[in-house]
Specification:
heterotrimer; A mainly alpha (101); B mainly alpha (166); C mainly alpha (398); A: 101 residues; mainly alpha; 3 helices; 76% helix; B: 166 residues; 6 helices; 74% helix; globular
Chain lengths: 101, 166, 398
């Protein structure tokens, strides 16, 4: 059986679910953040597959934008995590329960 | 040949993705980061199979080269202990599992219903020139906006990471 | 005859591949490419270690290695034997798997980068339409290797060295890529063979059309060389491995063959980035003057590569090491603005390419050169007179 669009979409689905599971279950801020990246990557894969099988390069452009935005997001998010760590000495969500710094 | 490559990369991506979020051997963020790098490399391989060569290179350059290095740098900076062997909360585990299973089911059902599979022969070639043409003509405004976004992000990060002067 | 000599390796490969049954050819061709690249550049590595030790010796007014073989030419062999027979020590606390994988993660991506470099006319393993991007993408893998080495050793010096190394590599990757982008802008292609083709031909029949002979190309080449030196962790940017400060940084817990692999990776990275600089700015395998165009293209490429290596050895023998803050200031406050202005100048150069009046070339040159020179002097003035900069005052040493 040759590889079709559905195959790629299933891989993308699996990766997305894994990422979602990580965000919901893991309690380390960094690992949660990495799981988010995994979800973004799953979306990228789906978009590239659509672009290929629907004869439309706009999907690839979208992935280009997603990668750029993800880079900015990671920079800001990690800066936030570092700032938080400086205040609280922890990167564990359960220790970040109070609203006041 | 192509089918073999697809299954190889797909398996690598999914297995490494699993090890990112739920590594049974190590709870260390560094292990997660390493496996995320592998996942990203496998995804770049899948991009190549989809003839998106430019994006495959960008994927490696930005994700493996910049994003993951940033992650690792922060891990080194913070010197996180392993998650101190805290037990996973049962409620979170079960709730998360159920939620993910439901979403997976929903998406799979959507996949089955929609006529995606009949999307025809793959023809689009992701040549760099064609991509650039599209990016700088049809998508010029979003492109500029993304540039502004990066600038805003940069300013924000610098402001955030500046130590408050006592 | 000269044509055959120029295409010798291409024809040789075609002949060898043709001798095998058709089913094998698909696999054989890349294997031959990979084998040739590994063989040639590992050999060059051996030669370069000897040249470097000899050259440094001469620069420091001593003989250099001269015991093994005539004039010490067999020294690389002895070094290799020593490395191979040394005990391989893994610290007890180390993360064994990552510690083992780090040297491999160092060498593999660099070898991949050679796939897109054109070493001669038609002598390129893969003519990839985003070749330059591929080069930088796989080059990014070495940062991960440095992290893996530094983190898995569980040694504070290796962690500090890795942090320094990664900070330095990220910082200098920006000017490195941006100076290459100027070439992409003018050549209009990301494929390295077509960038070489864009530099073919001669002005007035004698001056090669290399990018280094344009104002932005000259500035870009110098910036590229500086960034390349920093990327390959060589003196004066060898802080990650500073022996006197952090005793070899991320390499501290490595010995024997793994250390040799890191060493190999560093030199292969140096060759790769020099080869990229030659391809981008020095016309790749093109001959510098038309009457020498009959010399086989790969020989020109080799000569330029050896010239670059000699330059790097000279630099290493001449420059003192920087401090970390100087290193970062230099990258972000000096090189980054300059390389951005260089990009604008390249765009100006490209935009004025249609000027046809008498003396248009000289005008363009002067215009571009003036912009770059003004930026350079303004930046250096601003940096030297900024508070906290300028001539250093010694608090304790006086």
């Amino acid at each position: 059986m040759s590889v079709g669009l559905t195959h790629y979409l299933v891989v993308s689905l699996l990766l997305f679910c894994l990422g979602l599971f990580g965000v919901l279950v893991r309690r380390n801020l960094l690992v949660m953040f990495m799981s988010l990246e995994l979800m973004l990557n799953a979306a990228n894969l789906a978009l590239v597959a659509f672009a290929r099988y629907h004869h439309n390069l706009s999907g690839q452009i979208m992935v280009f934008f997603i990668i750029t935005v993800a880079a900015a997001e990671v920079a800001v998010g990690l800066a936030l995590i570092v700032a938080l760590y400086r205040q609280r000495r922890t990167a564990h969500v359960e220790d970040l329960a109070s609203l006041r710094l | 040949m192509e089918t073999l490559c697809f299954y190889l990369f797909a398996a690598l991506a999914v297995v490494c993705g699993f090890l990112v979020v739920a590594n049974p051997f190590s709870r260390n963020p560094v292990a997660s980061a390493m496996f995320l790098v592998l996942t990203i490399a496998a995804l770049a391989g899948l991009f190549v199979l989809l003839h998106a060569f430019f994006l495959a290179a960008v994927q490696i350059l930005v994700y493996a080269g910049a994003v993951m290095v940033l992650f690792l740098f922060v891990i080194m900076l913070l010197d996180l202990k392993e998650e101190e062997r805290r037990s996973w909360r049962k409620f979170g585990l079960v709730g998360g599992g159920v939620a993910v299973a439901l979403i997976a089911l929903l998406m799979y059902a959507a996949l089955r219903q929609s006529p995606l599979g009949a999307a025809g022969e793959p023809r689009v070639e992701g040549s760099t020139a064609a991509l650039g043409e599209l990016l700088f003509r049809q998508y010029l405004l979003p492109f500029e906006l993304v540039g502004v976004l990066l600038l805003v992000g940069m300013v924000g990060v610098i402001w955030l990471s500046k130590r408050a002067v006592p | 005859m000269m044509e055959t000599l120029d295409q010798l390796f291409v024809l040789l490969k075609r002949w060898v591949v043709g001798e095998f049954p058709a089913a094998w050819r698909l696999w054989l061709s890349p294997l031959i490419d990979a084998g040739a690249i590994i063989g040639v550049f590992a050999g060059l590595f051996a030669v370069t270690t000897l040249l470097e030790r000899k050259g440094l010796g001469r620069l420091q007014n001593r003989m250099g290695p001269n015991r093994v073989g005539p004039f010490g030419v067999l020294q690389p062999l002895a070094d290799g034997l020593k490395m191979l027979t040394k005990e391989d020590i893994v610290p007890r606390a180390a993360d064994r798997v990552v510690h083992f994988l780090a040297p491999i993660a160092m060498v593999t991506p660099i070898l991949l980068a050679y796939a897109v470099l054109p070493f001669g006319r038609n002598l390129v393993a893969v003519d990839f339409d985003a070749g330059l991007l591929f080069f930088f993408a796989v080059g990014a893998g070495t940062e991960l290797a440095v992290f893996m080495a530094g983190w898995s050793s569980r040694n504070k010096y290796s962690l500090l060295g890795a942090m320094r190394g990664i900070a330095q590599m990220i910082s200098y990757e920006v000017p490195l890529v941006l100076s290459a982008v100027a070439v992409v802008l003018v050549a209009g292609s990301l494929s390295l063979p077509s960038i070489v083709d864009s530099q073919a031909g001669y002005h007035w029949g004698w001056l090669a059309r290399w990018h280094v002979f344009t104002p932005w190309g000259l500035a870009g080449f110098i910036l590229f060389l500086i960034a390349a030196t920093a990327e390959s962790n060589r003196s004066p940017f060898d802080l990650p491995e500073g022996e006197s400060e952090i005793i070899a940084g991320h390499l501290i817990e490595y010995s024997g063959f793994k250390y040799a692999l890191f060493f190999l990776g560093e030199y292969l990275g140096l060759f790769a980035v020099s080869a990229l600089g030659i391809t981008l700015f020095l016309g790749g395998w093109q001959a510098p003057v038309p009457f020498l165009a009959w010399v086989p293209s790969y020989l020109w490429f080799g000569a330029k590569l050896l010239g670059c290596i000699a330059l790097f050895i000279w630099l290493r023998g001449t420059m003192p090491r920087l401090r970390t803050d100087q290193l970062m200031n230099f990258a972000w406050k000096f090189m980054l603005p300059l390389v951005l202005v260089n990009l604008v100048v390249a765009a100006l150069w490209h935009g004025t390419a249609a000027w046809g009046f008498f003396g248009a070339g000289a005008t363009r040159w002067l215009l571009g050169g003036a912009v770059l020179w003004l930026t350079y002097s303004a930046l250096s003035h601003a940096l030297f007179t900024a508070p906290g900069r300028g001539p250093r005052t010694y608090r304790y040493a006086d």
